[in-house]
Structure formats: C-alpha cells, structure tokens
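Technical annex B. To support the medicinal chemistry partners, we prepared a structural model of the target in complex with zinc ion, based solely on the information shown next.
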Amino acid sequence: MREERVMLIVNDDHLRRARVKSLDEWCPYCSKALAAYPLIMSDESEQNVYHAACALQLATEILVDLFTFFHPPAPYAPLFMLTQPSSAPNREGGDYALNGS
Ligand SMILES: [Zn+2]
C-alpha cells in the first residue's frame, strides 16, 4: 500500500487522486502556487503535495540536518542518547544491552 501513497503527479487525473482541487493551492514548502507539473505527494500522515523540486530540497535539508546531528562541527561533540524505558524488557540487546539492564 505504501507505493500508492507516494505519488508523482504529472496529469489532472493524478491531481484529483491526490485531492488537489486547484493548481492555485500552495506548496507547503515554498508557499507558491503549485501551478505546474511535475508535483509529488508526500507519504506523511497529513497529505501534502509539493513541487518536485521543493520535495527534493526538503529531502536534502533533512539529510543535511541528519548529517550535522551525527557529525556536528567543532567544537560541538556528538550527542547520543541510547536509553530504554526501564519498564520495557530488553529483548534485542540481551546481555549486551548498553545500559546493562
Ligand atoms: Zn514549492
């Protein structure tokens, strides 16, 4: 079913299936009218349609943010928090769990 939720929109039929009523609707990324194909629909819980270029920009920003999180520039040290709720049994870590529980 996941394949049906990620949709590249290249014609009016696709647009109707994505529930876009008008190309005057705004792209949630750049706040400009959708206006032109191709568009792309996200698979977030809230259905959004973006310009394909905006979706690419958004994905790139997420990747950069993730990279910065795992490899922060000096003088910042990487911050990792690998913890589990103490009430949850550790099924996967077993005796090798990081928190020793
Ligand atoms: Zn846009």
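Notes passed to the chemistry partners:
The radius of gyration is 20 Å.
The chain has one domain: 8-78.
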